[in-house]
Design goal:
Blueprint lengths: L3 E4 L4 E5 L8 E2 L5 E2 L5 E2 L4 E2 L9 E2 L14 E4 L1 E2 L9 E2 L6 E2 L4 E6 L6 H8 L2 H10 L6 E2 L2 H6 L1 E4 L2 H40 L19 E4 L4 E4 L3 E4 H4 E5 L11 E8 L1 H7 L3 E2 L4 E3 L1 H5 L11 E5 L3 E7 L3 E3 L3 E6 L5 H10 L1 H5 L12 H5 L2 E4 L4 H39 L13
Parallel strand pairs: 4-11, 19-24, 20-23
Antiparallel strand pairs: 1-14, 2-12, 3-7, 5-6, 8-10, 8-12, 9-13, 15-16, 17-26, 18-25, 19-21, 22-23, 22-25
Helix pairs in contact: 1-4, 4-11
């Protein structure tokens, strides 16, 4: 495959967004002010910004800054490591305003296919050039001119279209799987809330328990009413609580084995209900050299510092670093209940954190944390069966997402630098 050398500026227009006055930021409105928080740079796609309250803009702006569905954007400010060079596609027309921290990419479509451009801008080649040229301030910046100065090598337009279609099809499948998983998770959370927050689980007649007058009693520890017959225990009586540890990083023989070792960064990067692999494995020597513990499948992992509150269910035997408190339920069927119970009470758990450099939740405090215990009744068993069915479907999709992402990420550089060829026929649509 023959590649031709270009400056990006010969292929695209790169334009900076508008300077939007802070006095017009709002928590509600018709127009969303795009920020760097709208880039899911780990998955190279658009996300709704949940990190800031004031994401709407109510002031005036030029129409050219109101973006259309499918427009390609890239950040000009690196508010997280690896953000520069990320790309996203606008999901909806007439809603998102391009701010000055965001650049819009418009292709010269006689030279550059739009789908191919999306992956070209976010390729390792361009990211490395942008990183090297970024202003070395506390928060690193790039500019439209620096983006246009990047050197790239691209194939013919026909091959670009084939590459763009292949990668887009993979991303579309990933997006569909994520949406299905999100819908399943919404169902699972609703089931938890309905059963164990509202206490409207089905009674013997199949009617909502509390709403139908089910007997309730006030519990002093939880400061609320709970169904008669339910108990409150200490968390340590419900699950064994384990610390993690890190083998010496100065000894290479501690790493590279077949023991899955999880850090908070793994949970942050994967953003998944389940975890079964991490960025680094350790060896048996590494495991024996420190005080981390092996955790069985369906253990619940919770990051206890930097940050507190990342939660996942282990779907492989794993161990963790010292940034975790992990829970092994006395009855492993309680794993899914414990996962949602901790998620629901995570703000109370966060308040237990102490420390000056960063807050950490201690094992002793978690041991004394109260947990509502239902007992092995038919209603609880029904709930567990429903949740397990949802979780099994989610895990299949989670693994498929990981496999597709790995396939895309391995294929991307090979296609971009000509090491792999394409045999892909485009349809007319």
């Amino acid at each position: 495959m023959e590649l031709k050398k270009y400056k990006i500026g010969d292929l695209v227009q790169v334009t900076r967004g508008a300077s939007l006055g802070g006095e017009f930021y709002a928590t509600q409105g018709n127009y969303v002010r795009l920020t760097c928080g709208n880039f899911d740079y780990r998955n190279n796609c658009f996300k709704e910004n949940q990190s800031k309250d004031n994401i709407y803009y109510t002031g005036g702006f030029k129409e050219e800054f109101l973006l259309e569905k499918g427009d390609i954007i890239t950040p000009l400010t690196e508010q997280a490591i690896g953000l520069l060079g990320s790309t996203a596609r606008i999901p909806e027309s007439g809603k998102y305003i391009q701010s000055q921290d965001i650049a819009k990419i418009d292709c010269n479509e006689s030279l550059l296919d739009k789908d191919f451009a999306f992956y070209l801008i976010s390729s390792a080649c361009v990211k490395q050039q942008l990183s090297a040229a970024a202003q070395q301030t506390k928060i690193r910046h790039t500019s439209p001119d620096k983006i246009k100065e990047c050197t790239v090598w691209i194939p013919s337009l026909d091959i670009q279209k084939r590459i763009g279609r292949i990668l887009t099809d993979i991303d579309n499948k990933i997006a569909i799987n994520r949406q299905i998983n999100d819908n399943l998770e919404a169902m699972a959370k609703q089931l938890y809330d309905y059963w164990f927050v509202q206490f409207d689980f089905p009674n013997e007649e199949g009617k909502p328990y509390k709403s139908s007058g089910g007997a309730m009693v006030y519990n002093e520890r939880l400061k609320r009413e709970i169904p008669v017959g339910w108990q409150v225990e200490n968390l340590v009586d419900f699950a064994e609580i384990k610390n993690g540890a890190t083998p010496s990083t100065s000894d290479d023989t501690n790493y590279g084995g077949d023991i899955v070792w999880i850090t908070p960064k793994d949970l942050s990067d994967q953003q998944s209900k389940f975890v079964y692999q991490g960025e680094r494995n350790i060896t048996k020597q590494g495991l024996d050299s420190c005080s981390t513990s092996m955790l069985p499948i369906n253990s619940v992992l919770m990051s206890s510092r930097a940050p507190i509150g990342l939660i996942s269910i282990a779907k492989h035997e794993v161990c963790t670093n010292q940034g975790f408190k992990s829970f092994i339920p006395k009855n492993m069927e309680d794993s899914i209940y414990l996962y949602y119970y901790i998620k629901h009470h995570i703000k109370q758990i966060e308040q237990l954190g102490t420390g000056t450099t960063f807050k950490e939740v201690s094992r002793d405090d978690l041991c004394k944390f109260p947990i509502l215990v239902v007992g092995a009744n038919d209603t609880y068993k029904q709930w567990v069966e429903l949740q397990d069915e949802i979780a099994n479907k989610q895990f299949v999709l989670t693994k498929e997402i990981a496999e597709l992402t790995k396939q895309r990420d391995e294929l991307l550089p090979l296609l971009m630098n000509g090491q792999a060829t394409v045999n892909y026929h485009l349809s007319d649509d």
